[in-house]
Amino acid sequence: MRSEEAVSKNATTPRETRRYRRLATVALGGVLAALASGCDRFMQQPRCPALDACGGAIPVGDWVLRPGYPSCSEDIYVAPTDTRLVMADLPAARTSPPEPALFDWCDLLVTNGGNMVQAHPPRFYYQDGQIGNASIHYGADGHFSAGLTRTGTYTLDFPAYCMRAFGATDGRPADPQNDPNGPPVSLCKQLEVAVRASGLGEGSYRNTTCDASPADPQGCLCTFDVTETGGPTGTYQMLDSHNLLQLPFTNFPQRVTFCNQGDRLDLTGADGDYLFGLRGLRTMSLTKAPAPQASMASPTADAGQD
Amino acid sequence: MALAVSLAGARAGAEEKVLPSPEAAGPASEPAAEAVPASEPVLASEARPAAAPTELHPAPERPPVYGKRGDWFITPYGYARLDAIEDSTQSFEDGLQPSLIARVGTYGGDHRRSILTAKDSRLGIFVGAPIFRGMRSSAQVEFDFYGLVPTDARRQDSVVFGPVRIRHAFLKLETKFVDVVAGQTHDLFGWGGYFYPGTVAYLGVPAEIYHRNPQLRLEKKIHVGELEIMAAVAAVRPGQRDAGIPDGQAGLKLSYNRWRGAATPGFGRPFLAPISIGLSGVVRSFELPAFRAEPGSQSVKTTGYGVAASALLPILPVQTLDDLRNSLTLTGELSVGTGIADMYTGMDGGSRLPLLPNPSMAAPALQYPADVDPGLVTFDRNFNLATIGWRAVVVGLRYHLPIDAGRVWLSSTYSRVWSDDIKALTPFTSWGAIFTRMEYADGNLGIDLTPAIALGLSFQTLKQTFADVSAPTPVYGQIAGPTLGIPTVPGTGGVAASARNNRAQLSMAFFF
User: Which of left, alpha, beta for A107 (phi over 0: left; psi -120 to 50: alpha)?
Assistant: First the structure.
């Protein structure tokens, strides 16, 4: 308990009080100023800081990713599409839309005990696919084209329930359609054949392998390589000495800051815009494409992953 | 207005709220009906009688339920408040929960938001009835302006209209044997109202047990010298209505009345509180339809629980609220539980029930008839019903500077909540939609401009760590050949993705 003596010791003189009030006023003013200015230092810092925007000559020519600094994309999570309303009618009047939900443990895969183990292929879900391969062309005629390839190795995790709840079993041929008398294999190997075919059918998912999941032995882990290529074409123009305006034929105009140092080109989406309209892609550092090698193979044709 | 009835218990109950107790209201305890606002316009016809009345009628009045009107204690209380907030992201409405923070690289994650609102203003009324056969009774009803807003309301309307929301509405009956609390007020779990940290930020701060529920509570106080022991049990609105069983809550609080200090829940008024520790727990049931589109009558069940230990420690005690200089008080709360995410002010971690598998490949896909709020339970990878576990810690420190009887104060709060199983209970495709850990810290400066008007400045930072992992940044082979487009050198990255919101807040409130 504080004694009366202690209380009197703590007594503040009018002069001290005035001093403290001044301090409080200054503190208040400082915070108000910070509130008003909304200091940028308190903003989240991007994973992909802007590259040099020194400008330079029009970057006419063919460019590929510079070794050591391929590209930079922000970590953006895009939830898979909810399948409960896709291509469906709107909810009837006076009925609520379905409540938000997490995605399907089975990742849309449907297995059963029919002739083919896979009744419906999985969604080849992957997140943060990085641009591992790029080929950018700026023509002297004012046209540009970009071939951007997301690459990486990803995993699909199918719980035991998804694999076995609807009748699929071990000990059947891996490919009953093409080799009905093949040796019996595990359920995961049956799935491997089907998922591999589905991935190749979609054109971008290769080298699928499926094995029993160490953490869930009745379930399956499938890994696959992504080589997903796309990119816009359109026209471009110099906005000023540091900025290009790209006008893709099938997208909105995009402003890009650049730094052309002859054999090196740095691109950054201006004012936080994504590069080439690719979600999350912020910067690319490019180098002149060596003409002979570039003509030997397209980015995806010689990936050599199968 | 006579204050004939001393309602010690009822006042103690009121003390536990964020607002000042009716005691603290002091001279402003006139009934609302008798107070005429100074700025109230008076019509000329009302101000001056048109003519002398030919017959004198008594003023209309409502008779008391029993006893004399003057024996009833009736006082309004509350505050008018402005909050001016600057957020570094566009993630939150007014409070910092329960939304996920927008990530850097998204529009909301890269742009600020300004909030000015008076919706946290409050109005309450406290009523104490005359003692009847040795029983004391009282009631409290309190509102704020955070009522549900129609989904099609404009942004302006949702802020400016401020629909009324019930906060507290409960009665308290005190007898020789046991006290009864019936109605909606803070949960017994966490000993709501008593151990809250002093901060300008909205309560509950992240990771803090802060929840109100309709309940029927029995309390018993025992005094052993200066030691006060309070035990309570309560039947509370269930976490899942369709489980059919109310939640059970119980608590034990020990206080030593000779060691008291200033406690201030949130941006409220300080009250004298003894050093105390509280233990509390909750048990709840869940019963959901089996995880299929047409479950018939089949159900699955599980049980959630939570335990919490709370403490209020006046490190530098004070004896009176008139002089708070050098008052230093520590508050703390540790909690662990599963299926209790809603106790942390609507937190759900982003968790939802998963979509059903679609073996019939129906279009649109099958729907599961969920009947439980999100974040409490889910279906795991084996399609079993499972509760989601959380652990949390909150520590708060508040110090009144030796200025003007302690009218200037500093405070700081740190809190953290994390889950060890939410990731394992979430399909990997949705890992980016949940957080596994949330950390919060704030620093506050408060100044009482007058005994009734407080000004608060606060900086708050909140970080959420998501379940997904950022992409590694390998070096790719670009030159045509076997390494074309293939990661060749392990790079950096591969850490858990996260996002942070920083908030500056200025608040002013007039307490009455």
Answer: left
